[in-house]
Design a protein that fits this description.
This protein is of the alpha/beta class. The chain is built from 15 helices and 26 strands. It binds nicotinamide-adenine-dinucleotide and (2Z,4E)-2-hydroxy-6-oxohexa-2,4-dienoic acid (2VS). Belongs to the aldehyde dehydrogenase family.
């Protein structure tokens, strides 16, 4: 076990909320020899110093998860579900604290955290608790397959798999973490959660909440640190039975290579370059609303429809109305109720975003509005930006910016719209605005995307499969798909003969 200093410096105080900045391993707080700073994107202030995990902590966390696994796997489903519900209760009880800590840590809107994100965190736990209980098992009887087979019973069960490494990004830290933690725990697995180093705090609060809810020690472990320093030791570990990762394509490649050493099953939820297709027959008001919504969370949303594809005949009117509406967005402190767009997570991300915009302009793109940081708010507040005159094969159309930057292209007919929509290496999501039901059926059938929305955006039913095609990911999570991933599926085939008893 790593060293264990006892001082109160291992704490962040965010609006009066105490957050332990150490790891949570085997039901204990564990410090590291070194720390790293956690900076708020709201004003660049240092919030805390976070335990900087490495090989020792990775080893300790996997060992804890391995030791706790048999007990948790053997815990009756109803009891596992009860504890998950108690975690959901704890999240709801501390909703305001979680919301303010998350906003301070990652800069996303406080009102979104209060109204949408943290309630969803609780829902992730409740949903998978209930789904576990309905999942049951599947039985079917073999009727064919030769003279010996008839009457054989196939009994398919979702068995716990073992320790799971869950690695998550900073754009929706607790929501994305619990989307994995909840099904992994429900399935009877133990967890090592590694939150992103730019937003480490709410994962630590989750450890507290889970412990208060009665989750046994070692079932959920939280390790902090830089992916480059602790990642490989987690993903290469032979005792790890599943790896689920949400983040960038570059990191996913690295993780997949590590996982290859033990052939550890992987679930990857990666980036996107999703389109919003606006047909001339669409409700224009609705289409404009959907387009402006893509600036939510300052564009740091994997699913964001960052490519606006608009039918040429309405492009001028659409652009005019879009600009009018987007110009009314208020950028500022994400804790204030009136703010629509907050800051970008980190100066490095701003540089990246601005680099995309500058190179696009150099290649001939026109900045319709935005471009650059907000003059008064300063460097961390990149303005919502719209670019036109962009070529389909240009960098800004093909690569994920992960900031408040949209491009607008036009098309003349359905075939061209579909071609442009599908012509990237990604396939996470797509949104279609049309007033024609048959067109909706035709176009959605052709789009390459894990999720396609029609006349709506980000409507999430947790029973549905969620994930991406192409470079947007590997596998699907959600509902039974989550259990298919987190469990070892087993088929027991029982012959109708050979037993001494018939009971
Ligand atoms: N598809 C989805 O559901 C979804 C959701 C949100 C974000 N994303 C994507 O995430 C990206 C933004 O997040 P990010 O910049 O934090 O991604 P990132 O890949 O840089 O980091 C994600 C996580 O991976 C860790 N990591 C880094 N190197 C590692 C390594 N070698 N081994 C193990 N772990 C390592 C990081 O510490 C962090 O916790 C965007 O591409 C976005 O589209 C996808
Ligand atoms: O930024 C990405 C958001 C992803 C959303 C989900 O994973 C979800 O709603 O489950």
């Amino acid at each position: 076990m790593p060293q264990q200093p006892d001082t109160a410096v291992h704490e962040a105080r965010i609006a009066g909320v105490a957050v332990d900045t150490r790891h949570w391993i085997a039901g204990r707080r564990v410090a590291s020899a070194d720390t790293f700073p956690d900076v708020s994107p709201i004003d660049g202030s240092t919030l805390a110093r976070i335990a900087r995990g490495g090989p020792t902590e990775a080893e300790a966390a996997v060992a804890a998860a391995k030791a706790a696994f048999p007990g948790w796997a053997a815990t009756p489903r109803a009891e596992r579900a009860r504890i998950l519900r108690a975690i959901a209760d704890g999240v709801e009880k501390r909703l305001e604290e979680l919301a303010i800590v998350e906003t301070t840590d990652n800069g996303a809107l406080l009102r979104s955290h209060r109204r949408g994100v943290m309630p969803r965190v609780a829902r992730n736990f409740r949903f998978f608790a209930e789904w576990l209980l309905t999942l049951g098992h599947e039985d079917f009887t073999t009727h064919t397959g030769g003279p010996a087979a008839p009457g054989h019973t196939n009994h398919v069960s979702w068995d716990p798999a073992g320790p799971c490494v869950l690695i998550t990004p900073w754009n929706a830290p607790l929501m994305l973490a619990t989307w994995k933690v909840a099904p992994a725990l429900a399935a009877g697995n133990t967890v090592i959660l590694k939150p992103a180093e730019w937003s480490p705090l709410t994962a630590s609060l989750l450890a507290d909440i889970a412990a208060e809810a009665g989750l046994p020690p070692g079932v959920l472990n939280v390790v902090q640190g830089h992916g480059a320093e602790i990642g490989d030791d987690l993903t290469c570990h032979p005792d790890v039975r599943r790896i689920s990762f949400t983040g960038s394509v570059a990191t996913a490649r690295r993780i997949a290579a590590s996982a290859a050493s033990n052939l550890t099953p992987l679930s990857l939820e990666l980036g996107g370059k999703s389109p919003l297709l606006v047909f001339a027959d669409a409700d224009l008001e609705l289409a404009v609303d959907l387009a402006v919504e893509q600036f939510d969370n300052a564009g740091q949303v994997c699913l964001a429809a960052t490519r606006l594809l608009v039918e040429e005949s309405i492009a001028d009117e659409f652009t005019e109305r879009f600009v009018a509406k987007a110009s009314r967005l208020r950028q500022g402190d994400p804790r204030e109720a009136a703010t629509d767009i907050g800051p970008t997570i980190h100066p490095r991300q701003i540089e990246r975003i601005d680099g995309f915009v500058r190179r696009a302009v150099a290649a001939g793109a026109r900045v319709v509005f935005g471009g650059g940081s907000h003059a008064r708010l300063g460097g961390l507040y990149y303005r919502p930006t719209l670019l036109t005159d962009v070529a389909q094969d240009s960098e800004v159309v093909q690569e994920e910016v992960f900031g408040p930057v949209l491009t607008l292209q036009t098309f003349v007919d359905e075939a061209e719209a579909i071609h442009l929509a599908n012509d990237t290496r990604f396939g996470l999501a797509a949104t279609v605005a049309t007033g024609d039901h048959r067109r909706a059926e035709r176009v959605t059938a052709e789009l390459v995307a894990g999720t396609v929305w029609v006349n709506c955006f980000f409507v999430r039913d947790l029973r549905a499969p969620f994930g991406g095609s192409r470079l947007s990911g590997v596998g699907r999570e959600g509902g039974t798909w989550s259990f298919d991933f987190y469990c070892d599926l087993k088929n027991r085939v029982m012959a109708p003969k050979g037993f001494h008893d018939h009971g």
